[in-house]
Write a structure and sequence with these properties.
Length: 385
């Protein structure tokens, strides 16, 4: 069990990368003739088409652009965690945090659930992550470092779960779950990486959400989603815009998933990395958050108020909130750039803002978090009085 927990944190990014390759795509290639003319389809039929897709193999190139409206925080997470695995490491848990900001180009290949490869291209340097059977290999060309993990197949295997028996049943469940809070429509067509696609648009009906819409471009031939875009009500660039600029559904060559340790590279085994970090990063991070009054959430909540897109998680830290100057030094500038002072019936506090998720921390230690506007958080805090 311990081995499963240990390896899963490295296999999950690979699994996510494989799923992403099969389910999302980037800014569509612009077709000279405009959007494709496809037969009309309902939202339920399009959901059924997605559910029926059995895409297992593909390869291609995609880009991912993320704009959370955050100040630069390179190195922040590593600093809070004690600097255990940052730049110059092939550890996937450190390298893949780069994808949470900026624009990145990746190459990806997938051959079912047991073989995936992701290569992050960053200028002249690159970072490769390979899952092949029960092994994970990762290589950072900038530092000539290699990470290796055995036993990955078992750790990365998702638990079984019951699903509706047919695509139509799954579509019915999705539409039922959306309920009165969500609009699901077909928003025309698009050409994504040279393929004809339908656009499935999912949007809140409720006021107060920071989500404008989620748009998924679905391959008209295979039912494979090809583009994922998350837009915020604040406008500007999408919060997430990720997907293929080129895609091929043929099975990649088996050799694509082979890995040979480069000459002179230093190899770190997952077992050793786990030992080196044991008792360090998690405790250091927990202490850093605790010092800033964020360590008590698990003891006193959270509770959820509201529903659907405007649901807000709330908990009580159990102690007065400290000021930003009391935060770990790695986080002070970051928090200053995010925070706005607010007040109401609840008293006063600080709203920490992004383009999607906002959090209100009151001066008496209560916290309200959700994909809602700052005013919605203030209203929830006032209503709790």
């Amino acid at each position: 069990m311990a081995a499963q927990r240990k390896t899963s944190r490295y296999v999950v990014p690979i699994a996510v990368a494989g799923i992403a390759a099969a389910t999302i795509g980037l800014v569509p290639a612009l077709a000279a003739s405009g959007d494709p003319d496809l037969p009309e389809i309902t939202a339920q039929q399009l959901i059924e088409k997605i559910a029926a897709s059995d895409t297992q193999t593909l390869s291609g190139t995609f880009k991912i652009s993320t704009d959370l409206g955050l100040p630069a925080f390179d190195g922040l997470l590593g600093g809070l965690a004690g600097g255990g695995s940052g730049e110059g490491s092939a550890d996937p848990s450190a390298q893949l945090t780069k994808l949470v900001s900026g624009t990145h180009t990746l190459k990806i290949a997938a051959d079912g659930p047991e073989r995936q490869k992701l290569t992050l291209l960053d200028g002249k340097e690159q970072y490769s992550l390979v899952h092949n059977g029960d092994e994970v290999w990762a290589y950072d060309s900038a530092s000539n470092q290699v990470f290796h993990e055995k036993g990955a197949e078992e750790a990365g295997r998702a638990p079984e779960k019951e699903l509706p028996a047919s695509p139509k049943a799954l579509a019915d469940e999705v539409l039922k779950a959306a309920g009165d809070t969500t609009s699901i429509t077909v928003g025309g067509t698009a050409n994504v990486a040279g393929r004809d696609a339908y656009r499935l648009v999912i949007a809140p009906k409720q006021q107060g959400s920071t989500v404008e819409a989620v748009t998924i471009a679905v391959d008209a031939a295979t039912g494979t989603p090809l583009k994922f875009t998350l837009d915020s009500t604040s406008g500007g660039k999408p919060v997430v815009d990720a997907g293929f600029t080129k895609v091929d559904f043929a099975r990649p060559a088996a050799s694509e998933f082979d890995f040979t340790v480069p000459k002179g590279a230093e190899v770190t085994e997952g077992d050793q990395l786990e030992k080196d970090h044991a008792g360090k990063a998690p405790e250091d991070l927990e202490k850093a958050l605790g010092d800033f009054g964020l360590g008590g959430a698990g003891q006193n909540g959270p509770e959820v108020v509201g529903e659907g897109w405007t649901a807000i998680a709330t908990f009580d830290t159990g102690e007065a909130a400290p000021k930003t100057e009391d935060a770990p030094k790695e986080a002070r500038g970051f928090l200053d750039a995010l925070g706005d002072e607010v007040s109401g019936k609840f008293g006063s506090g600080t709203v920490f803002k992004t383009k999607i998720v906002n959090a209100l921390m009151t001066d008496d230690g209560k916290v309200y978090v959700g994909a809602v506007t700052p005013q919605a958080l203030v209203d929830a805090a006032n209503a709790a009085q």
